[in-house]
TrEMBL record:
SUPFAM superfamilies: Cyclophilin-like. This is Allophanate hydrolase. One of its GO terms (molecular function) is hydrolase activity. InterPro entries: CT_A_B, Cyclophilin-like_dom_sf, PxpC. Gene3D superfamilies: Cyclophilin-like. PANTHER family: 5-OXOPROLINASE SUBUNIT C. Residues 29-296 form the Carboxyltransferase domain. It comes from the Bacteria. The keyword ATP-binding applies. Keywords: ATP-binding, Hydrolase, Nucleotide-binding.
Length: 312
């Protein structure tokens, strides 16, 4: 990270904060994971509030936000999980909501508490954070550390809270398609009616589910095969749901696949959350994806149009 003056200083970087954009979708053939934001919808909303395109780099704050100080006048925008957020400056303390936009005067701070619901909140700034780029993306798995200065600004944003966008929340059901190894399940219907919980051994690479067991036909000579975010694998009688930072290949049976429209919901789950699954058809999965993309496009256009009005 930069040690320069302009930008946002991480005084307390929180539990696990990283810089994320939309990742590296064109590099999987070289063995490079997709990466990027776990909840791309919330990233897009934060960027729209900041007047950015959807692919600008923002901070992904996981479970607990932390404390950050502006090294210049800096517009900020928040979206995603509901975290308590407070701006601290010479004129005192004031709370801001998620989602919303505001601006910090030089030397001002923003305090972000724990996520009451959901897992990840995004903090964007006009123009995005200008950290190092690699293969066309600023997405990084290295967490931000205390003392890092994230290059950005100067900028200002009006104080706005979109009326039609609430804080992003996780859901208890994920829709799935049968995976290439669906036939290896001893009872394909049994686990679809079971309830699971997100285990503590979960991160951006994937989530281990507690519940089951889920029995599959043994395949001792199994070869690794391509996997993508949302792949559900069975290992040792338990399920693993792969996240955005998963590898490009996997050797466990790939029994199901979370539909693309629910990948952001997957990124909002946190340890202890209950989750179940519902199978849908390929036609339904395509329709859900199309509807989700159209709805997000319309929403971010409305927010971005208001953001262009300039600071109040």
């Amino acid at each position: 990270m930069s040690t320069g003056r302009m930008g946002l200083l991480a005084v307390d970087p929180g539990f696990f904060t990283t810089v994320q954009d939309l990742g590296r979708p064109g590099a999987r053939e070289f063995g490079v994971p997709l990466g990027g934001a776990c909840d791309r919808e919330s990233l897009a909303v934060a960027n729209a509030l900041a007047g950015n395109s959807a692919d600008c780099a923002a901070l992904e704050l996981t479970l607990r936000g932390g404390l950050f100080e502006a090294r210049c006048d800096l517009g900020i925008a928040l979206a995603g999980a509901a975290m308590a957020a407070t701006i601290v400056g010479e004129d005192g303390r004031r709370s801001i909501a998620v989602p919303s936009s505001a601006w910090l005067r030089e030397g001002g701070r923003i305090e972000l508490g724990r996520a009451g619901r959901g897992a990840r909140t995004y903090l964007a700034t006009p123009g995005g954070f200008q950290t190092d780029s690699w293969l066309g993306s600023r997405s990084a798995e290295r967490p931000v550390r205390a003392g890092d200065v994230l290059p950005a600004g100067p900028s200002r944003l009006a104080a706005r809270r979109p009326a039609d966008v609430g804080a992003a929340e996780a859901v208890a059901e994920l829709r799935v398609l049968p995976g290439p190894d669906w036939a290896l399940l001893d009872d394909p219907d049994a686990w679809m009616h079971a309830s699971f919980r997100i285990g503590v051994q979960s991160n951006r690479m994937g989530m281990r589910l507690e519940g089951g067991p889920v029995a599959v036909v043994p395949t001792p000579e199994r070869l690794s095969a391509a996997v993508t975010p949302g792949a559900i694998q069975a290992a040792g009688g338990r399920l693993i749901v792969l996240g955005v930072a998963c590898g490009t290949m996997g050797g466990y049976p790939h029994v199901a696949q979370v539909v693309s429209a629910d990948l952001d919901r997957l990124g909002r789950l946190r340890p202890g959350d209950a989750v179940g699954f519902r199978a849908v058809s390929l036609a339904d999965a395509r329709r859900l994806d199309r509807e989700a993309r159209e709805a997000l496009h319309a929403r971010t256009l409305r927010i971005a149009a208001a953001a262009r009005d300039g600071p109040s």
